[in-house]
Amino acid sequence: MNWLAHILLSEPNVENRLGNLLGDLVKGKDLDGLNCNLRRGVSRHYAIDKFTDSHPIVKISKKRIDKEYSKFAGILIDVFYDHLLAKNWAIYSDTIFTDFTAEIYGSFQKYSGEIPPSARQIIGYMVDGDWLSSYQHLSGIENALDRIDDRIKARMGERIKLVDAMPILERESIDLEQDFHSFFPELQQYIQDWKISSVSSANEN
Questions:
Q1: Which residues span the domain enclosing 135?
Q2: What is the chain's Cα-based Rg?
Q3: pLDDT single digits (tens) 144-166
Q4: Does residue 203 lie within any of the structural domains?
């Protein structure tokens, strides 16, 4: 799942939500510098990704992507699922979408805790650019894919041009939306159960 879903599936506090995003932005030894609440958000991020990546419905969605982009099908589906979540927001959240994004942005801007400067910069870009709201529109998905391309190029020195796969996502959008509606309630239930089991394990230790 991409950022909108990760935030929605977080515990409703700023550090868990930030930690859920930091699961994408902070790696290696930098994780050790995060406080326990941020690390709990990172752990939730990993749990969401593990469940998503192994789920049979998500695997079906990935197979809808043409072979040319099969190596990056997971990225494409993650981002497009965020579009479908934004599009169908009222089904999965009782909070008005604009109220939700405003709360997120405001809490992130006010947060004064320690996070790596590079991650804080990217989160600042997200807030200033209203990335979460942009997922409602296909143009916002195109921009998200361009940003991912930039990160891939920074690591690998090569631009994949993921945005060129947009016609595939649009062609498969009806089936992908059906996949999403079958999958996402299961993810919501899973992460609720995960929260209960993780709290129980922490109490036992």
A1: 3-198
A2: 17
A3: 999 988 887 877 777 788 999 99
A4: no
